[in-house]
Specification:
The protein is 44% helix and 17% strand. It is of the alpha/beta class. It has a single domain, classed as Alpha-Beta Barrel (TIM Barrel), CATH 3.20.20.80. The strands form three sheets. It has an eight-stranded parallel β-barrel with strand order 2-3-4-5-6-7-8-9, surrounded by six helices. Strands 1-12 form a two-stranded antiparallel sheet. The chain has a two-stranded antiparallel ribbon with strand order 10-11.
Length: 405
């Protein structure tokens, strides 16, 4: 039997664009129209059905929920803010509070307003001040209802997909331009961290907890050759820790949010920068079970990663961890095995405050469309009926008792 602390945060996560539907002023919406990818459309209609979704989260004994605010709803045109959209998010947060569910609010989860994208996006030297203006508007209005803030979700994934491999808007392939974007994202986080703390001080509210959600993976060398070991270590440092190091050096983190799903088996077979940072083993030398997208299931990697985070001496929240699968038994096995490894890390001194499963419900999985099924709640996209999966019920027993049998 494994026992978690009494005040542990248990819940699930969503992001606005993936569940709300009809985010027509977002750069992703415009990109979907212009590309051949599946359209997000009405998504899960969470924008109107959030009360129903939070009733289900409450019935599953969740005491925390991570959501994001869609910048393109708040500021659909440059400098023109929507009070109606802001009041909607206030209702969403109060709806969680009324159910004794702690909100964790993300300010940027991949998507940008169209006007911002057309101004040069995160490459524009004005991007930081644009983002700060939006954050000031949102945080000032919501401060008294929110304790936990995440400034930016997975900055390295955003960089990788949008500016290195060019799979996401704005579909750029340039290390130099990616570096410029990274510098702006670092600056945006640091200044937003300072801004939120300033707002809370001026309003005489208890200090907030502000962090980021950092995408992490376990990196394993395909063979023990020096080049494979070097490439695996380099990726671990760059993808997992580089962004964290930059913002922690500037004392702008109250907690570390960690998103963990999988591992990568590294093979550095060709002498090129691309292969150094992206080459993977294609021979399945270290076979493990995989999810429906072909990602390795490797729960031990989460424990190893958490132990590396001890050096920062900051509390950690698992802000995303989940599996897309058609086999719900596999979903429960995934949750259980990762919780065991989290607990082992806690026994070794890692201060983990909570665990949020990705996702509360099936959703629009970016360029993968609606195919991948991550949810504790199944969604019928014809009727928008929610179905509570058995894995969600098993997880709910852990949420209420803090005990994993």
């Amino acid at each position: 039997m494994i026992k978690f602390p009494k005040n542990f945060l248990w819940g699930a996560a969503t992001s606005a664009y993936q569940v709300e539907g009809n985010n027509v002023n977002s750069d992703w919406w415009e990109w979907e129209i212009e590309s051949r990818h599946e359209k997000s459309g009405s998504a899960c209609r969470h924008y109107e059905l959030y009360e129903q979704d939070f009733d289900l989260a409450k019935s599953l004994n969740h005491n925390v929920h991570r959501l994001s605010i869609e910048w393109s709803r708040i500021e659909p045109q440059e400098g023109k803010f929507s009070k109606e959209a802001l009041e909607h998010y206030q209702k969403v947060i109060l709806s969680l509070r009324s159910r004794n569910i702690e909100p964790i609010v993300t300010l940027h989860h991949y998507t940008n307003p169209i006007w911002f994208a057309k101004s040069g996006g995160w490459e524009n030297k004005q991007s930081v001040s644009y983002f700060l203006r939006y954050c000031d508007y949102v945080a000032s209005f919501l401060a008294k209802h929110v304790h936990y803030w995440i400034t930016i979700n997975e900055p390295t994934i955003f960089l990788y997909h949008a500016y290195i491999i060019g799979a996401w808007p704005p579909q750029i392939k340039s290390f130099l331009r990616a570096n410029k974007v990274e510098n702006n994202l670092v600056c945006a986080h640091v200044k937003t961290y300072q801004l939120i703390h300033k707002i809370y001080k001026e309003l005489n509210i208890e200090k907030p907890c502000v962090g980021i959600s950092q995408f992490t993976q376990a990196y394993m060398p395909c063979t023990q050759s020096p080049q494979n070991r070097f490439a695996a270590n380099l990726r671990d440092k760059w993808y997992n820790f580089n962004f964290l190091d930059k913002i922690i050096r500037q004392r702008s983190m109250d907690f570390i949010g960690i998103n963990y799903y999988s591992r990568q088996v590294v093979e550095f077979s060709k002498p090129s920068i691309a292969n150094l940072f992206m080459g993977v083993c294609k021979d399945n030398h270290h076979p493990v079970l995989k999810n429906s997208l072909g990602w390795d299931i490797y729960p031990e990697g989460l424990r190893e990663l958490l132990l590396k985070l001890k050096k920062y001496n900051l509390p950690v929240i698992i802000t995303e961890n989940g599996i897309c699968t058609a086999d719900d038994n596999q979903r429960w096995d995934y949750i259980q095995s990762h919780l065991k490894n989290i607990h082992q890390a806690m026994e070794q001194g890692v201060n983990v405050l909570g665990y949020l499963y990705w996702s509360l419900m099936d959703n629009f999985e970016w360029d993968k469309g609606f195919g991948p099924r991550f949810g504790l709640l199944g969604i019928d996209y014809n009727t928008y009926k929610r179905t509570v999966r058995e894995s969600a019920k098993k997880y709910s027993q852990v949420c209420v008792s803090g005990i994993l049998e």
